[in-house]
Design brief:
hydrolase; 21 strands; signal; Endo-1,4-beta-glucanase f, domain 3; 14 helices; Glycosyltransferase
Length: 672
């Protein structure tokens, strides 16, 4: 299963695309050209055809990829027919791969056009950015470890730093608006907020969607089961008298406002996909066909630098007191890593204010050296801002050091670091090691479940590092990859004849790394990892296969190539009419009955009339689930029956499986 991860932050107040809609040109399996050069490129085309077939149900009528074909789905999104910037980035990557295999770049361009229409907020959706003051980016509000500690009171006595990139971005692109994907949209408007893209407002339950929504906002312990979904544009139509704002932020009064959260790993993946598209199209002599889309990716990469900065633009390093930690100036508030999120918002028209925040917490699973390398070295992806290229060059070096610092003695990569302990610039426990003054955190950002226990974070991140090594031949990362591949290879079993396979699922961590010394890195002898259990997660398996393939190609390692091929062939045995999937038992679905914390005396309603009060549960504020055709399986479980089993088709996973076939074809197809 995918992780119960999320994109959370504490608010700091201050149409159909041609060729992508289900049933359109690129949807019908019969219309996908049979141009396969070998067995594995044909498998790519077969999987691609299933994803694009209207009957499969991966896309909405408007041409937006769902998080999953199935509707009853709770993990990071809390409904299968929501979608994420993650899904859009995988779509772009899938279409880039399709362009390499077929020479047809129209679907790649269409994926970027759809992103601009549906998940990158338009000017009308972020209407007061002109009021943003880079000298005063946001008002501080501490995060808290427990959901019951919210709302969090704004504190204007805590100094915040200066935003050093807003002015140059405005100069480079001629607008004060942000160019970044919001992480979550309700594709079918299941909740009924109707915060429809391109309209700048709440259009209610009658809107067709897709609609901007958000969920996590209440600290590290808030799992998906404890969230209160809310509209990204809050006009006080739903929720309580102040909409949903006073569930999260404590203030003397509240104003109608808009707000968006970015998932930096997704935007970086979109840049990564654009790099591959540019490389492959150039190799075909067809770079001009995608030049406009590649320019959009370069622009996105420029704005993605907000992920480099401390949440409140405070100085990075030894930041252990809200008032004692100095406000940043220039770039001394940058850690140059990809943080967990950045966010921006503002008043509705007439309010005259806007805000922006970064994030001082960085997770190993979010780093993307391919994006950093492309944005800092490839002319076609050069940012237009004055310092964008330089910043990405600095980031690449810092990400490499971060990788080296976090490698355990066994080989797996540990969690990350934060510039703001507990999200409140608190003092870390005595003896906590540091990375450029940032405190080591084995579970950055979220704790239910621990954020680095899911093996998928290893596979996602190390696939990028293997790609980077394949492209750059950077010898600094080879020892890390050598050790990681040796560790993970010993954990894999795969029988291509029967389809039996297993990969790590949950990791257990002990110890901690040595404090980082760039001139003399430590051995991290006490930082250890073990595999707690295994799985057949098809999406993570695909990412792992790609990691092994790129490493094998770069290192000339035939044993790793064989292991990857065996795993790929075992995965392919599990074919369904919609893709490749393995049934999964969801014991966590007992949490449909979990209480959702609502402060005493707070009452409100969801758009469908579900009450929000002290008796709220995950299900009670999502009563629409009771009408889902799969809900009887949940009810039987809640009534004491067996845990339900589901065969899911997640968009990102199915796309990654398709790409695993294509990568094998590209790197080793002639020797298959």
């Amino acid at each position: 299963m995918a992780p119960l991860s999320r994109r959370g932050f504490v608010i700091a107040v201050g149409g159909t695309i041609a060729g992508v809609a289900a049933g359109a040109k690129f949807a019908a399996a019969a219309e996908v050209p049979a141009l396969a050069a070998d067995e594995y490129s044909q498998k790519f085309l077969d999987q691609y055809a299933k994803i694009k077939a209207a009957a499969s149900g991966y896309f909405s009528p408007q041409g937006v990829p769902y998080h999953s074909v199935e509707t009853l789905m709770v993990e990071a999104p809390d409904h299968g027919h929501e979608t994420t910037s993650e899904a859009f980035s995988y779509w772009m990557w899938l279409e880039a791969t399709y362009g390499r295999v077929t020479g047809d770049w129209a679907p790649f361009n269409a994926s970027w056009a759809a992103a601009e229409q549906f998940i990158i907020p338009a000017a009308v959706d972020q209407p007061t950015n002109a009021s943003y003051n880079p000298a005063a980016p946001a008002t501080y509000a501490p995060e808290h470890p427990a959901v019951s500690d919210y709302p969090s009171a704004l504190d204007k006595t805590v100094p915040v730093g200066q935003d050093p990139i807003a002015t140059e971005l405005k100069s480079a692109y001629g607008t004060a608006d942000m160019y970044a994907m919001h992480w979550l949209i309700d594709v079918d408007n299941v909740y009924g907020y109707g915060t429809t893209a391109g309209t700048g407002g709440e259009n209610g339950p009658s809107a067709s969607g897709p609609c901007y929504i958000n969920s996590y906002q209440r600290g590290s312990q808030e799992s998906v089961w404890e969230t209160v979904p809310q509209p990204s544009t809050d006009l006080f139509k739903y929720g309580g008298p102040n909409g949903y704002l006073d569930l999260f932020t404590g203030d003397s009064s509240y104003a109608q406002q808009w707000k968006y959260t970015n998932a930096p790993d997704a935007d970086a993946r979109a840049v990564q996909a654009a790099y591959w598209a540019l490389k492959w199209a150039t190799d075909q002599g067809n770079a001009g066909a995608i030049s406009a889309s590649v320019a959009k990716a370069a622009k996105m990469g420029d704005y993605l630098r907000y992920a480099f900065f401390d949440k409140y633009f405070k100085q990075v390093g030894d930041c252990t007191s809200p008032t004692g930690c100095a406000a940043g100036s220039g770039k001394n508030s940058a850690h140059y890593l990809l943080g967990w999120y950045f966010a921006w918002g503002g008043a509705e028209p007439g309010g005259g204010w806007a805000w922006r925040i970064g994030d001082g917490a960085a997770h190993q699973g979010y780093q993307n050296p391919v994006a950093a390398w492309a944005l800092s070295t490839q002319a076609g992806l050069a940012p237009q801002s004055a310092t964008g290229k330089t910043d990405w060059s600095t980031s690449l070096g810092r990400q490499i050091e971060f990788l080296q610092w976090l490698q355990s003695a066994d080989g797996a990569i540990a969690g990350g670091a934060t510039n703001s302990w507990d999200g409140a610039y608190a003092t870390p426990p005595a003896g906590t090691p540091t990375f450029y003054g940032m405190a080591y955190d084995w579970q950055p950002v979220y704790h239910d479940p621990p954020s680095n226990n899911w093996f998928g974070m290893q596979a996602w991140a190390m696939e990028r590092w293997a790609e980077y090594y394949y492209l750059s031949k950077d010898t600094k990362v080879k020892p890390v990859l050598d050790k990681w591949v040796a560790w993970v290879s010993a954990q894999i079993t795969a029988d291509p004849a029967t389809g039996d396979f297993k990969i790590p699922s949950t990791l257990a961590w002990t110890g901690q790394p040595d404090t980082w010394n760039p001139s003399s890195p430590g051995s991290n002898a006490s930082l250890r990892v073990s595999v707690a259990d295994f799985s057949q997660d098809v999406g993570v398996t695909a990412a792992l296969i790609k990691t092994l393939l790129y490493y094998a190609a770069a290192a000339g390692d035939t044993a790793t190539q064989t292991l990857a091929k065996n795993l790929l062939d075992a995965l392919a045995v599990h074919t369904t009419d919609k893709g490749i999937s393995v049934a999964e038992t969801r014991t966590d679905y007992s949490r449909f009955a979990d209480p959702v914390y609502i402060p005493a005396g707070w009452t409100g309603t969801m758009p469908n009339g579900d009450p929000i009060d002290a008796d709220a549960t995950f299900l009670s504020i999502r009563s629409f689930y009771e009408d889902d055709p799969d809900f009887p399986k949940i009810q039987a479980y809640l009534d004491g029956g067996a845990a339900p089993s589901f065969t899911y088709h997640r968009f990102w996973a199915q796309a990654d499986i398709a790409m695993a076939f294509a990568v094998y074809s590209e790197l080793f197809g002639t020797t298959a």
